[in-house]
TrEMBL record:
Keywords: ATP-binding, Cell projection, Cilium, Coiled coil, Cytoplasm, Cytoskeleton, Dynein, Membrane, Microtubule, Motor protein, Nucleotide-binding, Transmembrane, Transmembrane helix. The lineage of its organism: Eukaryota, Metazoa, Ecdysozoa, Arthropoda, Hexapoda. Residues 5-133 form the Dynein heavy chain ATP-binding dynein motor region domain. The keyword Coiled coil applies. This is Dynein heavy chain ATP-binding dynein motor region domain-containing protein. Belongs to the dynein heavy chain family.
Length: 252
């Protein structure tokens, strides 16, 4: 394509397509979409384009669902994590600005840097601010680590939900009619958390969440399957769930 080859003529703003010259708007953007899960393009195409993969992965979905379950079970943890993320990004931006400002002042300074009193004062101020930000960033990392440790307790529920979604996502191999959206699955997932039995025992609560998620996903999915395929779906759930359980048992 002429645009990918930077085929923009210098006379005005035009692109030569074949033998014709077409006016070109510099704000023009071309976005191509494919249904292929893992498309392959020629190296020269990949070098001239930006590939964005929106495919849902098991680990990515698990993290998303973990955030959803923690948001319901422990909203304080999720809010603190979001706030810490904002703070850490703010610290990085501030440090970058300080570095850029320092480089600009040094480049504009005269041959004798030490004789420039204002520059020395600014250097000391920048260093102090940088040290303060580094301390705050370190404290934020420690706090974030503690929050992540608390969030990890709910990972088994998110892991089970992610596993079930990909079982659903592969049902199209049995029948092309079986198409399940992530949005609909998220609704079922949130309902499962909502309707799960309460328990004062934390480990039991997590297990109740897992059971509720598994049951509601099975009921929701079975309603859309032919009778002859329900047993196949159930067998898939049993095999994969028990495989994961045995895998973790061996690790322990």
């Amino acid at each position: 394509m002429p645009r990918l080859r930077n085929g923009i003529m210098m006379k005005g703003r035009a692109i030569k397509v074949g033998d014709k010259e077409i006016d070109y708007n510099p704000e023009f953007r071309l976005i191509l979409q494919t249904k292929l899960s893992n498309p392959h393009y020629k190296p020269e195409i990949q070098a001239q384009t930006t590939l964005i993969n929106f495919t849902v992965t098991k680990d990515g979905l698990e993290e998303q669902l973990l955030g959803d379950v923690v948001k319901v079970e422990r909203p304080d943890l999720e809010n603190n994590k979001a706030e810490l993320t904002k703070q850490q990004n703010s610290y990085k931006i501030t440090l970058k600005k300080l570095e850029d400002d320092l480089l600009q002042r040094l480049s504009a300074a005269g041959p004798n840097i030490l004789s420039d009193v204002m520059l020395v004062i600014n250097l000391e101020t920048t260093k102090k601010m940088s040290d303060d930000i580094e301390i705050k960033a370190t404290e934020a990392k420690i706090t974030a680590r503690k929050i992540d440790e608390a969030r990890e307790s709910y990972r088994p529920a998110a892991s089970r939900a992610s596993l079930l979604y990909f079982i659903l996502n592969n049902l199209y191999k049995i029948n092309m009619l079986y198409q399940f959206s992530l949005k609909a699955f998220s609704v079922v997932f949130n309902n499962a958390i909502k309707f799960a039995e309460n328990s004062n025992n934390f480990k039991q609560r997590v297990q109740l969440l897992i059971d509720s998620i598994t049951y509601l996903v099975f009921v929701y999915t079975s309603r859309g399957l032919f009778e002859c395929d329900k047993l196949v779906f159930l067998l898939q759930m049993i095999i994969q769930v028990f495989f994961i359980l045995n895998f973790f048992f061996l690790l322990l």
